[in-house]
Amino acid sequence: MNARIHIILLLLVPLVMGCYKDDLDVADLNNNPFDPEYVGPAVFELEGTYTQFVDLGEFTVLYQVIEVRVREDLFLSSAAYTVQLTDLQLGMVQNVVPDPPGSNIWKYYREPAPGQEICVELRLANNQSTAGATTFCVTL
């Protein structure tokens, strides 16, 4: 009878142990760059600011360009996204597009402001939600 109990216990122990789960600490789940509470390396890298003439057909316009790179290597998996930009001086919010298309380089074109500090706030956006903001200030 004693051997029978040992055999039953030996069979039950792996079953019980297999059901054990580690407690999940939601506070530690902050490594996704799309999360507003993301904690990790900077997702945006400022490439710089410069002026560029843009041909609009009938005439050419001089714009100030603020260029940033998105660190897609920080994404947990491949993801479609946009970049939402807020021009803090103008109060304008818009989605910027990659330039060149399909790249991880994003450019914001605005009226030049030589000698004036221009600050923009950038956020990753996907599935109608936005991540935490990164702010860059540049001067021509």
Strand content: 35-45%
**Helicity level, as a percent range?**
10-25%
Give the overall form: elongated
Rg, Å, rounded: 25 Å
Question: Can you summarize the main beta sheet?
Answer: 5 strands, antiparallel
What's the number of helices? 1
Word description of this protein:
This protein has 140 residues and is mainly beta. Helix content is 12%, strand content 41%. It contains 1 helix and 8 strands; from the N terminus they run H-E-E-E-E-E-E-E-E. The chain has one helix spanning 2-18, and strands at 44-55, 60-70, 82-87, 92-96, 105-110, 117-126, 129-130, 134-139. Strands 3, 4, 6, 7 and 8 form a 5-stranded antiparallel β-sheet that branches. It has a 3-stranded antiparallel β-sheet with strand order 1-2-5, with no helix packed on it. The longest helix has 17 residues, at 2-18. 12% of the residues are buried. The mean pLDDT is 87.
Descriptors:
five-stranded antiparallel sheet, 140 residues, mainly beta, elongated, three-stranded antiparallel sheet, 1 helix
SSE layout:
Layout: H1 2-18, E1 44-55, E2 60-70, E3 82-87, E4 92-96, E5 105-110, E6 117-126, E7 129-130, E8 134-139
Give a concise summary:
With 140 residues, the chain is mostly beta strands.
